[in-house]
Each structure stands twice: as C-alpha cells, then as structure tokens.
Amino acid sequence: MRKAHEKRKINTMNEEVTFIGFGALSIGRDWGLADKERPDEKEAGIVLNSVLDLGINLVDTASAYHRSEERIGNSISNRRSEYILASKCGEHNDEPSTFYDFSYKAIKESIDRSLTLLKTDVIDLMQIHFGPEPEKVIAEGETVRAMKDAQKEGKIRYLGASIDGELAKQCILSGDFDVMQMEYHLLNQENEDNIKLCEEKGLGVLIRTGLGRGLLTSKALQAEFKPAKLGQMLELVHNDGELLSTLALNFLYENKGISSVLIGTKNLDHFRKNIELLEKEFDKELLAQAIMIGKN
Q1: What stretches in the chain show pLDDT beneath 50?
Q2: pTM over 0.90, yes/no
C-alpha cells in the first residue's frame, strides 16, 4: 500500500482516514501564492472526483471557503459513502470576504447551511474556525454548546477545533473535542507536544500547511523572501525542491500521532505529484538534519 493511502484510526471517531486528505480551500475560494484564481465549476468537480478516484477518503472544507461546500455538494454528494466529510464554522462566507460570528444562533444556522450546500444529512466532523479572539470564543462557550446541540440532533457526528499553541492544548484537555487541526511542518514544529498529547488522549490530528504554505516545495526556489531555516534546508538538499518536499512529507508520515495531512490544491497534477514524492527514497540522515534545522 502506498503511504498516502495508509489508513490511520481516529479513536475518538472510531473511523480510519487516509494519511493524505484533501483540503478543499482553493477549489472554492481564490487562494494561492501565484495563481490565485479558483477553478470553474466543471474543473472543481473533476478535481474532487479524481481525488476520490485516487483512494483519498477525507475531504476538509469550511463555510469560509466561499463556494467550496457548494461544489462538494454538487460534485461528490452522490459518492458520500466514500469519504469522511469535515467542515468548519465560526468564520462565515460573505463573498468576496468573510466575517466572524461565534454566537449560538450563528453557529446553528451555519451548520444547517453547510448541510444544505453539501447535500448531506450529516457532517462527520465540524470544527471551530477560530478568528482574532479565540480565547473569548472558548471562554464564552456558545460555539461549543451550539455544536453539541447539533450533534444531539444528528446533524454532525464529531467536534473539532482548528487552533495552535497553548489554546490548542486547552482544547485538547477540555474533553470537548474529538479532533484537532493544527499547523505543523519542518519549518514550524511548535505543535509537536500538542500532537503527542492528542495521541495520548486518542484524539485525531489533522495537519494543515504541512508543506509550509508552499515553502517546502519547488516554489521555494522562486521565493523572494526565504526564512533563514528554509535557506539552510535548501543548502542541505542542494536546491532540489522535490527532495525538500519528500523530506517534508515523510517528516509528517513518520509521526504516528498524525492522522491525516491535508493537501490543498486546485491542480490535480500537483496533488498526484505530492503522493509520488511521499513515496520517493530518501536519506534518513538528511531528514534528521532537516528536522534539527527546523527545531533550532
């Protein structure tokens, strides 16, 4: 079995997800380092169906991803049994922008809207899409209360939170959540202890920006500004962008506390390429050196 298709169990959900998941941001919202324009409806449908055809069984979206939920509903709701569906609430779509509202009423309405757009009876995982005042959202508790009520009503199955650092730790220990979505990659290893804590507690871990928002790919060679750590890593791999991606992906793969790494793209070739790079042979000593560069 290819590494991308390895199933990892999320104990709190009693579900298995493929190590590579699909992040559906850029199929619905203009996003990216260079080519920011989202694909049209037809192309988005081709990408979504092809991801499922590749054997990927986790699709992660959000209300804030503009037309993403709608396109998932239009394109693959007929294949609903083939994937674990994750979405987010709290940051709301107001195309071309978004806004935050974490009140009980707004969250309940957002979940209902997501169900309609996704053309499904239940969303497997609903995550809090935190904004500028996450401490306030956690302290007030309205968002979690609304999510738990939606769970009791059978609209969502499990609860998650997309947050980092000390607040992520607080969420893990709260007992309210089944899955945490966090940033983690070779250039930013700050959530390492949170991932270990999730593993101890049996919580699932979804990784966003596992390729450093494109910096741990061949795009790094064209980047105008290179963080010092990135410059050292590029020297280590002799400016081989593909090798850098191989190391970055296998850094995540070797951490058994990680359930799935969300790879977001509107370009199917890029998605396939990442699956290939995960499989490439690499020098484990080189990876160890890259990890140390990232930690220092």
Answers
A1: none
A2: yes
